[in-house]
From TrEMBL:
Family named by the database record: Belongs to the bacterial solute-binding protein SsuA/TauA family.
Localization per record: Periplasm
UniProt cross-references to Gene3D superfamilies, sorted A to Z: Periplasmic binding protein-like II (3.40.190.10)
Alphabetical UniProt keywords: Signal
Keyword Nucleus: no
Matching PROSITE patterns: PROKAR_LIPOPROTEIN
Pfam families: NMT1_2
SUPFAM superfamilies assigned: Periplasmic binding protein-like II
Name used for this protein in its record: ABC transporter substrate-binding protein
Lineage of origin: Bacteria, Bacillati, Bacillota, Bacilli, Bacillales
Length: 326
């Protein structure tokens, strides 16, 4: 009897262990507005299995354009959107039945750099006066932040230079490479690639000039936030990746995220990671700070795109991030 009982218990234990090993992961659809080394902690969280550790399987889709990414979220095409926080402000002004809520921050500075075509002259902001500046889309955070920085340095974007804003985001770099503009506002790694190829020279960082701001973050519908605890697990995984991205050697970070940039040299990815880490562009934790959010609203106000009162407590739920960081 004893042997039979032991055999039964052993078989039962084996079934339990197998069952645990085969535990099904919860699928979460995430839409990113673009593919960028600026988003390194997200890719690291996927590749280092932080999401899997917390029971999640991420289905990542790149949906070019903030409006398209938000449409996908509103229509339930995705569960979570990685997009500029200003987009949630625009949607809030339309009074949706199911509000959009920001719950975690990914980047905390502007991620663009000023690239000059003339690589020989000494740079000063005054040099932009009378030049042709190839900017970003009207109403988008890169353009609003860019204009804010120009004004901070005594440049009136509408009067002191020729501002080109009618080129699609995906074609801005090609336009500059083809000879349009004296200056251009670019994300990495394009800015560094242009410098390597002799097309232009990085002369200033909009991130360093602008300071801390919730530039890009994760948002979802209020109903999703209330209905399912996967948002908590998502935030836990993100926070672990954010810590790892700052603690690990830049080379290891570059190696981890390299599958997302197959056409980019590994050494260049490492260089860009170092640059973004040095200016603290990657958020060190998922908490969206109220003062930083106010900086975002100040930028939008200066750009003339904020047309209604915005309540931080309505657009940001920081309770999950606060608990995760604790």
């Amino acid at each position: 009897m004893t042997r039979l009982r032991l055999a039964f218990l052993s078989a039962l234990l084996l079934l339990v262990l197998v069952g645990c090993g085969d535990k099904e992961l919860q699928s979460v659809k995430v839409g990113e507005v673009t593919r960028s080394i600026f988003y390194a902690p997200l890719y690291a969280a996927i590749e280092k299995d932080y999401f899997e550790k917390h029971g999640l399987q991420i289905e990542l889709t790149t949906i070019p354009g903030g409006d398209k990414t938000m449409t996908a979220l509103l229509s339930d095409g995705i569960d979570i959107a990685l997009i500029g926080a200003e987009t949630s402000v625009y949607v809030d002004g339309q009074h949706p039945n199911d509000p959009i809520v920001n719950f975690a921050q990914l980047t905390q500075t502007d991620g663009t750099f000023l690239v000059a075509r003339d690589q020989n002259s000494e740079f000063s902001w005054d040099a932009l006066k009378g030049s042709t500046f190839l900017g970003q889309r009207v109403g988008g955070m890169p353009q609003m932040a860019g204009e804010f920085v120009l004004k901070k340095n005594g440049i009136n974007p509408q009067q002191d230079l020729t501002l080109i804003q009618n080129i699609d985001f995906a074609n801005i770099a090609n336009a500059f490479a083809s000879g349009t503009g004296d200056y251009v506002q670019l994300f990495e790694p394009t800015a560094s690639i242009f410098e390597q190829k002799g097309i232009g020279k990085i002369v200033a960082s909009f991130g360093e000039e602008l300071g801390a701001i919730p530039y890009t973050g994760f948002m979802t519908k209020e109903s999703t936030l209330k209905a399912d605890d996967f948002i908590t697990n998502f935030t836990k995984a993100l926070y672990e990746a954010q810590q790892w991205v700052y603690e690990a050697p830049a080379k290891d970070v570059a190696q981890a995220i390299s599958p997302y940039f197959e056409d980019t040299d590994l050494a260049l990815i490492e260089q860009v990671v170092e640059r973004y880490r040095a200016q603290k562009s990657y958020a060190e934790n998922p908490v969206i700070d109220e003062d930083e959010f106010q900086n975002l609203l100040d930028v939008m106000t200066e750009a003339g795109t904020l047309d209604h009162d915005v309540q931080y407590s309505k657009l940001v739920n920081r309770s999950i991030a606060d608990e995760v960081v604790k």
